[in-house]
Predict the structure.
Amino acid sequence: MIAETEVVTAARHGDRAAFERMVEPYRRELKAHCYRMSGSIHDAEDLLQESLLKAWRAIGGFEGRASIRTWLYKVTTSACLDAVDSRKTRALPVGFGLPTEPGTPMTPRAEALWLEPAPEELIVDAARSPEARYSARESVALAFLAALQLLPAKQRAVLVLRDVLGWPASECADLLQITVAAVNSALQRARETLARGDRPRKERAAAIEDESTRSLLGRYLRVWEDADVPGLVALLHEDAVLSMPPFEAWFKGAQAIGAAIGGMVLPPGTKGQFKLLPTRANGQGAFAVYKKDPASGEFRASAIHVVECVGGKVAEITAFLEPKLFPNFGLAPVLRG
C-alpha cells in the first residue's frame, strides 16, 4: 500500500503531464520487461506504448491498493501475454536443425520471426529480492532469451516475474490472477525447459567482461577490418558458433566458421571493405558493422555483431544482418569521417 502523492492524485484527475511524471521512473524497466517477453526491441516499444495508453485510460480507477510499479507491471504483462498468444515465436538460427556445411547455398527464411538484439541502455537493475535468480545482464543474454521464447506465454511471464524480477509467488499470482500453486507449478515447468537448453550459469558468468575480454574484442575488430580470416579463426573456440539472421543456416566449429566467412564475406582482396564500431548489446560486446558501398565509397550500415566471449576466446557470433536495427543503438546509417 502506498499513500497517494500529489502527482498520482493529479494523474487520476486527468492531468496527462502528471501521469507521464508518474510513469517515467519505470519506463525503462517496463520496456526491458516487454523485450524479455517478446524477444523484439521493436515489439517491446510498441507493447510499452500500448500498455501506457491502457494505463492512462485506467488511471482514474487506480485506488492505491498496490504500488504504482506493481500496477504498471500488471497492465504491461497483460499486453505482453495477449501479444505472445497471437504471434509466432521468435528464435535464432541455432533453433532450426543441424549446423550448415560451408559452401551450402544460403537463402533468408522469410517466414521466420527472429530474435532481435537490444542496446546496453535497456539493461536495468531494478530492486530485486533474494529470490531473483538472474542478474540484469544474464536476463537479456541472447541464449536465455531464445530459450525463454520457447515457453508458453504464462510460463514465460511467471519465470520473468519470479526469477528475473524476484517477485514473491503471492504477488505474481495476484498479478496473473491465478493461484500460488499454479504459479509454482508453472515456474517449475519453465525452469525445467530452460535447464534443457541453457548453458550452465558458471559458464555464462565467465563471460563477464574484463581486460582480457576487451583485448579480445579489439582483436576481433582488427581481423574483420583487415579481412584476416586466419586471424579470426585463431580467436574462436574450437566449437564456436556463428549465426546470421535472417539466414536459417548456422555454422559450428572454428574451421567451419572460417571457411564460411572466407567464402561469403571476406574473400581475398576485401581488406578495407568493412569498418566496425564497438558498442554493447544484450550484456555482451558488440559491433556495428559498416560495409563500403562500391559506387559512393561510403560505409553503410550492414549488421550488428553480438560477440560472446568465454575463457579468452570467442564462443559465439550472432550477426544480425539488418540495418534497421541501427537506430535502436543510436547509430547512423552512414559512417562519416
Notes: DSSP finds 13 helices and seven strands in the chain. The chain has a mean pLDDT of 91. The longest strand covers residues 299-310.
